Amino acid sequence: MLTNDAIQPDSDYTGFIKKVKDSTGIDLAQYKEAQMKRRLTTLRTKNGYSTFTSFFDAMQKDKALFYEFLDRMTINVSEFWRNPNRWEVLRDTILPALNRQSKNLKIWSAACSTGEEPYTIATILADKNLLSSATLHATDIDDGALEKAKKGAYLERSLKDVPPDVAKRHFTADGMMYSVNDTLKKAVQFRKGNLLTDKFETGYDLIVCRNVMIYFTEEAKHMLYHKFAASLRPGGVLFVGSTEQIFSPAQYGFDSSETFFYHKKG
Fold first, then answer.
1. Burial class, 31, CB count within 10 angstroms (exposed 0-12 / middle 13-18 / buried 19+)
2. Model confidence over 51-63: pLDDT tens digits?
3. Nearest to residue 69, comparing CAs of 15, 143, 3?
4. Is 210 in contact with 241 (CB distance < 8 Å)?
5. 20-30 burial, b for 16+ CB within 10 Å, e for fewer?
6. What average pLDDT does the chain have?
7. What is the per-residue pLDDT for 158?
8. Over the stretch 68-110, which tens digit does the pLDDT of each residue have?
9. DSSP class of 8
10. What CDD domains does its record include (predicted)?
């Protein structure tokens, strides 16, 4: 347990990274080291472990501690309609254009966290009468987040940016919680996925990956942008977060016509 809170040698953290990768497939080396190490050091000391070695050993025996580690690592902070003006562009400009090209839209919410993002997409599709003909995938690396997403129950604060008429149509108040209506739940296909190691499906019209890339190294971002481009059909769109503008999108085969929306050339 916690004895001396002295700074641990780098070999302690690098050894932890290797053990996590070997046992789970999660490569923490692809994340920005200073941010990740600071976040995990806080978690480790809070639980009373003075080294990452002892912390990893404890995670192997304690599933609750392991899930807490996953929660801390994946930054599960999400809201419906986060940055509303960007969702309005998706609703009013991007989706109608995509629908003119494809009547059966294939959409992927990558790193969907606890489900607010794919359900936001589903509300927009429903209001445009596109939900029944669309395929909507949602993936995340965190089993705990996916379970919450499938339940579809959220605190009122998560809905603070949802237009009132949208909230009225698609959510039901249940005590302190708001539940996503069953039609939306059935429309979203949740499954586990690792962006850094998985082979991506192809033929997507739209990929939404927001507020995740900021935690990755430049090398990991470069790899992922190439993978996203390959996963989109020609003319498909990648929608990223408000702090994740892609510089030199042409190197990945993208054009930018709207801020934070990138069209695959061809």
1. buried
2. 999 999 999 889 7
3. 143
4. yes
5. beeeeebebbb
6. 90
7. 86
8. 887 677 554 568 998 899 999 999 999 999 999 999 999 999 9
9. P
10. AdoMet_MTases (cd02440)
Task: Give the C-alpha separation, 241 to 229, whole Å.
Answer: 16
Could you tell me the CA-to-CA distances from 177 to 86, 121, 145, 154, 156 in Å, in that order? 26, 20, 17, 5, 6
Q: What is the mean pLDDT of residues 35-41?
A: 89
Could you read off the pLDDT of 168-226 as tens digits, one per residue?
999 999 876 899 999 999 999 999 999 999 999 999 999 999 988 888 899 999 999 99
CA 210 to CA 123: how far, in whole Å? 17
In degrees, rounded to 5, the angle at the alpha carbon of residue 261 between the alpha carbons of residues 258 and 263 is 100
| pTM of the complete model | 0.76
Amino acid at 118: P
C-alpha of 170 from chain center: 22
Which among 143, 237, 34, 209 is positioned nearest to 13, based on CA atoms?
A: 34
Q: Indicate the pairing of strand 106-110 with strand 135-140.
A: parallel
Distance, in Å, from the CA atom of 147 to the CA atom of 115, rounded to the nearest integer, reads: 9
> Given the structure tokens 């929660």, which residue do they identify?
71
Angle at Cα 147 formed by Cα 163 and Cα 36, nearest 5°?
90
pLDDT of residue 116: 95
CA–CA dist 147, 167 (Å, integer) = 22
